[in-house]
Every structure is written in C-alpha cells, then in structure tokens.
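Dear H.,

Thanks for agreeing to be a second pair of eyes. The structure we're designing against is below in token form, covering all 228 positions.
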C-alpha cells in the first residue's frame, strides 16, 4: 500500500485509530445523556437532543475535545464519569503488533491526538499505549485542533519533521484532509474505529480495518535495511 522507503515518521491518532472508539462513543452518546436525564429530570430523548445540539455548536473546534469546557457547559463531573467506564478503555487488538513492527523497521512513532490531556492521561494509565510510541502531543498543547493548519505547523516544528516523509493515520476523513493540505505526504484511514459499529466508507483516502495488512511490507522494509 505504501513505499515505506519514503516514510520516516508515522503520526497516529489515538481514539478510533489505536484505541477502540467504543469507549468515547458510549461515554458521550449514552452515559452523558443518561446522567443529564437522571440529574435534571429530562426524558432520555430530551437529554440526548440537548447534548447533540451542544456538540454541534463546537464541532471541529478545540472546545469540542475539551473536558473542562464540557464540565462547565453540562454541569457534570466529566472526569468522574470517565472513571466509571475505565474497563471499556481498550486498545485495538492490532495496534501493538503494528507499533512494534514500525519500531523494528526504524520508523518514528508519534501519537497525535485531539484528546484533552486529562483524557489522554487516563487512557495511558489504563493501557500499554505509551510503550508503543516514541513521542506524543495533544492539540490542547498547541491551542489548535488537528482540523486547523496551525496545529500541523506547530507539530512539524516541535519534532523537526519533514512533512512529505510522514504518514498520518486517523479515523476522520476531515482530519486526514487537513493533514494532506498541511503537506503530510501520506494518509491512511481506519474504517472500523468503533468495534461495535459498522465499517465506514472513505471517499478520498485509502482505508484499512486491520493493521496486520501492513505488516508484510513493513517486515520487508526491515529485512532490506538489514541487508544494506
């Protein structure tokens, strides 16, 4: 799928790309409305419509990903609620083998996420993800979401990257487009971010459902390096 000789660095989204998005979908689309309904006496439908309307107002902005923003907007203990679901925080089964193969092939692995630092810390606490990457950055450190071109400029400068020699993997086609516009040389979609939902169809980018489909080419890359 890719000529790995042209790729030095792999930039990896977290939720839906390395972690199963089921945790986040269940939290924001089920637990939050349920808790609003319980605390305020709304019907389930009213609570769901309230949160959908609130989400739509800030989609694509840093606030959409900000736990502090949602705690204030919804008047809920967002981090406390997160901790009630930690058993649902799961790595994709194919993530760690892929990350290990990238390391063996000499590729730099950078976690590039819109997740709020509090959410990131919780997920690192309950998975082995940190052992599979060389560096990480949350968009909240830059002041811009991945949808914004300034995020990418800050990322390239921080890690001294050559954008054309980077591969970016994400489950959002809109964010893949933002990366391409910023100069990232290669993009790849994840078509099954949530293990409990149907496979997505990507229109403008190649997409996979299993990282194992990339391992043969990566192994050849590693073997070629040994032979030089």
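And this is the sequence the design step returned. I haven't edited it by hand at all.
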């Amino acid at each position: 799928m890719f000529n790995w000789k042209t790729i030095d660095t792999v930039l990896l989204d977290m939720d839906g790309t390395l972690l199963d998005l089921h945790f986040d979908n269940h939290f924001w689309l089920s637990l939050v409305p349920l808790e609003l309904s319980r605390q305020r006496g709304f019907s389930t439908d009213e609570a769901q419509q309230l949160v959908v309307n609130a989400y739509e107002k800030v989609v694509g902005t840093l606030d959409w990903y900000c736990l502090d923003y949602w705690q204030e907007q919804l008047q809920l203990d967002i981090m406390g609620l997160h901790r009630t679901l930690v058993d649902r925080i799961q790595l994709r089964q194919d993530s760690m083998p892929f990350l290990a193969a990238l390391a063996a092939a000499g590729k730099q692995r950078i976690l590039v996420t819109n997740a709020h630092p509090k959410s990131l810390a919780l997920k690192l606490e309950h998975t082995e993800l940190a052992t599979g990457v060389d560096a990480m950055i949350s968009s909240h450190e830059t002041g811009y979401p991945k949808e914004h071109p300034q995020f990418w400029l800050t990322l390239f400068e921080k890690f001294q990257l050559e954008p054309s020699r980077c591969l970016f993997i994400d489950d959002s086609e809109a964010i893949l487009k933002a990366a391409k516009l910023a100069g990232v040389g290669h993009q790849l979609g994840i078509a099954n971010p949530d293990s409990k939902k149907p496979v997505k169809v990507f229109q403008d980018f190649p997409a996979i459902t299993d990282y194992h489909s990339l391992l043969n080419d990566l192994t050849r890359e590693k073997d070629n390096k040994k032979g030089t």
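Two observations from my side: Residues 136 and 160 are 14 Å apart (CA to CA). The longest strand covers residues 108-113.

Warmly,
E.
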